[in-house]
Records
---
Amino acid sequence: MVKVKTCVFISGRGSNLKNLILCSREKNFPIKINLVIYNNKNCEGVNFAKKYMIPFKFVNTKFKKSENEILKELKKYNISFICLAGYMKIIPSKIINKYKNKIINIHPSLLPKYKGLDTFARVLKNKEKKTGCTVHYVNNKLDDGGIIVKKSFFIKSNDSVISLKYKTQNLEYRAYPEAIIKVFSNI
Ligand code: GRF
């Protein structure tokens, strides 16, 4: 099976990156991670790229020229699919247009509810019954775009921001690979 050349964009801990790397090493998983792009010098997640010998590239997204740098890097590695995994920056339209329907993201809420940051605190404040995570296509609007997979769980009365984050991330490790399989089984 020819695997789809994929780049993962990260800014932080990279636990989803690690999970995707491990999945992508499975024989029948549709993607291979050929590149990791990160925009935060202190990003721990880049260590997973190093550990698993995946090329990685730091891009300073404070500068507009970073758009072209990213595109150049994606071209260099022949990337045709992008997974955002805790990437704390809006993707410029130039990249979105070049990779139409080829960029997906994981978000820690049941979209379309709770777009943006601090999802767990907001979910608790609003006394929601359920929360979870969503994998969706990326378009020009924040945390928008077609939903691929959504997974949820019931919130308990003793849940906190920390416990919700823990439970949500554990769901994410199932949701993201499932979404990728779904994307490529529809093609
Ligand atoms: C995840 O919770 C994801 O939903 C959000 O950022 C977090 C990244 O975590 N977009 P990690 O860096 O993969 O551990």
Note: The radius of gyration is 16 Å.
---
Amino acid sequence: MHEEPHTPKPNFIRQIVSDDLAAGKHGIVHTRFPPEPNGYLHIGHAKSIVLNFGLAEDFGGLCNLRFDDTNPHKENQEFVAAIKEDVRWLGFGWDDRLYFASDYFSNLFDYALELIDKGLAYVCELNAEDMREYRGTLKEPGRDSPFRDRSPAENRDLFQQMRAGEFPDGSKVLRARIDMASPNINLRDPVLYRIRHGVIHHQTGAEWCLYPMYDFTHPISDAIEGVTHSLCTLEFEDHRPLYDWIVSNLSVPTQPRQIEFSRLNLEYTVTSKRKLTELVSEGHVNGWDDPRMPTLSGLRRRGYTPAAIRDFCQRIGITKSENRIEMQLLEDCIRDDLNRHAPRRLAVINPIKVVLSNYDDNACEYLPAPNHPQDPSLGERRLPFCRELWIDRADFQETANKKYKRLVSGGLVRLRNGYVIRCDEVIKDAGGEIQELHCHWYPDTLENNPDGEKVRGVIHWVSARHGEPAEIRLYDRLFNIANPGKKSGDYRSDINPDSLLTCVNAVVEPCLAAATPEQRFQFEREGYFCRDSSSEKLVFNRTVTLRDTWARNTSEET
Ligand code: ATP
Ligand code: MG
């Protein structure tokens, strides 16, 4: 499935799995990726996907895709479909092992009854405020709920009535009966079930008015599916005693083990679903797949490849320490991939016309151009060349010092894969704006430079009679600050106002008209680009610049 074989980096979870297998604890390793369908997947999820599916792949085991769908009011089918597409796109499959936590609603209900019968769960009628009050604090133990010592028979009866819809929202909950004095607040009789009338669940419709909590659902779902290693992020570390309490007190088929690792935090972006939802709903970006979003659909539309994202996840590794990864690392991964694989093309983003005064107006020739300077297997294409060309406005200055390796008045420059030209005349409009450059064409310079004359450098170009008009979107980082919101208090105030620059007058070489959605290229001297997948018109998105311009800008400042 993967393009290039990789040697997985060792990490502590890999070690645990390999030790468990060596000790004969499990026949095979079985993991799961458990997204909640309340948003699109982001680059942080990729870390979890690559870990879970990758472990299973490397150890010949299995990985399930399981939707953790116990919060129906925030979840929907659009998110379910998008998540499936993104996991597949990253290169992973789940065969017939697609599950929903809601598949287990009746099992979960029966397990709740088992806890009740064992005297390990009770129906509590404290309101939310009192419940908080009774729970105590980190310094003080909690107090027992007045409903804690109801008999199993009474609890069973009340729980059945909750299920039958006989009580309003918030009037009753089912709680585990563990220890109100536990130093771990998660063990102070946590809520297992709450009443939710009137919500239509995307999988189970109106069947239930009673919904189980994540902490109850997750370990049981893992056990039912035979998951051996349940990998989650560090914020669940304090929940692990509850996880263990649940699987050890119930007659579940297997005893899965929870292991925590640190989440991915990435500089210059946010990876909280709440914030990503706000960016979309408040219109700061144009949807979940806006190429500036750190979502997998946004990165895909931006031109990222699955291989680059998997490579990134390998490079960052798996540990237990919280950190913030440099955006540059992600950008380097896509540069490495595209540098090796993306065909080269010529595109002029800000065109200015060049007229070759001594080139026959009726002539046209087709100049061979390799698609990749180091990889002849990518072949070549032919660039139409004629009397009128476009070059980029940034590649011409009337006067410049020696360091300027482009076209100047009276100076010579080579056209990429083409001839040498010399600028003889600058035509301006009434306002002094440059309209055209009249240039001299040097025949016989495809192979050699003209005798005794200095060629400043090489610039790109497109035939004005053959080029295709295109729109080019120059994307930059979505935030100006490495840790958005850290200083300002509101991540929104750190949004980069220049994260999108739209160039509507670009011209690209003719073969790009046939580019397919998301097809990726290097536009020589400009960066890596891909065809936008959501526009009818010819639109290219900049994936990343050729080099790390952020590092350069910062070092120039200092
Ligand atoms: P949020 O807390 O922003 O709502 P979440 O982490 O709860 O998001 P889920 O859909 O529940 O989102 O996550 C699915 C899986 O992906 C979980 O196992 C979660 O731990 C993991 N995950 C989510 N975000 C990250 C991240 N930034 N880095 C690594 N793993 C992550
Ligand atoms: Mg979650």
Note: Residues 554-558 have pLDDT under 50 and may be disordered.
---
Amino acid sequence: MLASGQGSNFEALVAACRSQHLNAQVVLLVVNNPGCGAEQRAARLGIPCQRINHRDHPNRASLDSALISACQQAQVDLVVMAGWMRIVTPLLVEAYPDRLLNIHPSLLPSFRGLDAVGQALAAGVQLTGCTAHLVRPEVDAGPVLVQAAVAVLAGDDHRSLSARIQRQEHRILPLAVALAAARLAG
Ligand code: GRF
């Protein structure tokens, strides 16, 4: 798994594996922000964590090459971007064809890119949600695996809406991993 921030999706996926709701194992977390919440969660959960800091790399391709090496060394079958706040290059997408997943806090194709929750609030939609999808070189595009809809309630602010969307992310991400695996098998 790749994470840049709090790591709540990372923890949710680990929990799904450990409770055997998902027949998978999280073997490695890669973080790009030293000391981020995800890194702290990995220490608490006993999941190996590697720092690959984009600030140490001259460009995106160099960062992605380091990610590929780490994933290959860990012999992973799937790579899950769980709040990985870097744009990936075709290098990574092509190294893990149909094996690279992302979770995004909107009903794609609406509100791609940064601050999807803020975009939804600004647009005044009554329904938004989250999407788990396979990654293609274009940002926040690629075949949808699972979506969950979340109503925007009167009085919602960024924090309250984000929190409800995140609860749904934690629910759909394990489903998306199972679907991606089934898709490869079948
Ligand atoms: C999630 O809302 C995800 O949709 C977005 O980044 C956030 C990560 O949250 N891509 P967390 O680090 O898993 O708590």
Note: The longest strand covers residues 127-134.
---
Amino acid sequence: MIRSLKGTYDILPDESWRWQALEAQLHDFMSIYGYKEIRTPAFEKTELFSRGVGEETDIVSKEMYTWLDGGKTNLTLKPELTAPVVRAYIQHNLGALSPVTKLYYMDALFRRERPQKGRQRQFHQFGVEALGTPFPEADAEVIAIAYEFMVSLGITNLKLKLNSIGSGQCRDSYKDALKEYLSPHVQELSETSRLRFETNPLRILDTKIEHEIVLLVKAPDILDFLTEEDETHFSEVRELLDGMKIPYVLDKRMVRGLDYYTRTTFEITSSALGSQDALCGGGRYDKLVETLGGKSTPAVGFAAGVERLLIALDEIGKTEEPSKTDIYFVGLGDQARKAGIKLVHDLRKQGYKSNYDLVRRSMKAQMREANKSGARILLILGDQELENNQIQIKDLENSQQMTINLDELKNHLYKLEL
Ligand code: AMP
């Protein structure tokens, strides 16, 4: 038997309704905030990610599914969504249509990671990107979307962590200060952190290793290196969040994994999740559009893991499937069954979620199926009733059963307000 690959999984029918519900809510929510959906291809030129995300990041250096296509072009299954969205923004000159372009997406991503709960090789993210404005209003709006969407789903125990990593120039001086602080301790660092010490020392702050966390307690603070403009920007973001009553905690060690961030960075975690507790991450990325060949365009966005949201909802017990059937038809005898098929066809055209038995089972088996379907109304038709132009209708909500004229069925159902 051929099985699915490690780190991938099927969304089975008793699970897919949850995805549909989340997607429907996402589309509604985003239209309230005035964001429009964008969909980009599943694969892109590898260069888009190595340039856009950064050669030194885990994603690019270790996790991409890359191949040489036709022996000529280096292609990659998309491991993140901001770079493709920015590529499309530049390619289609979306910035010319309006000063701010507000986009959202929900899509599958691919990373060759070690699979575990909440960490797959094919997974899904939704997110937003607001391109074209350097102002803190955009940061605050994007953070509000991330936070309020999770609240609207019913996810509890949210923690919004906020930081600013400044703009290019102050980050360079901070990197130097951090390196200076860490240099007497390089031998105590893990292999990963030693590598990061050379390539991107800021990323050492992401460490989950206990003795490194302790070592970093006395490390210089990035907030002390912010320029005056960076500081003003950050305090305005906080003021706007306070005004919207969005609770956050400052986390000066949070730098996020990707190279393209500038100024605001944020992350939302939920204690409903286990060790993989990050639901969403984002921030401002004022240099990315330019790096990918567009005009200098400030931007801010976030991406949230859909599987993680569903796990969080599971943990807090928000997983009851709404009934998918209004009416179940039970037919006894050949003529009644055929008449039932016509009847259900008409009911379906009127918009009733209706079902019947496709495998010619006994009445008992059909009744069992009807119960399982969660239908409120049972229609029971025998050959004799058919001859009399009648049908039995049972309301499972109050167990009332009656025989009515078939011509009255439509009216009768209408009154029940299914
Ligand atoms: P990132 O693009 O790495 O900033 O991740 C953003 C969000 O995507 C995280 O907060 C997680 O919720 C989710 N995520 C990242 N990697 C994975 C993965 N391998 N499997 C499932 N969800 C993931």
Note: The CA atoms of residues 42 and 226 lie 38 Å apart.
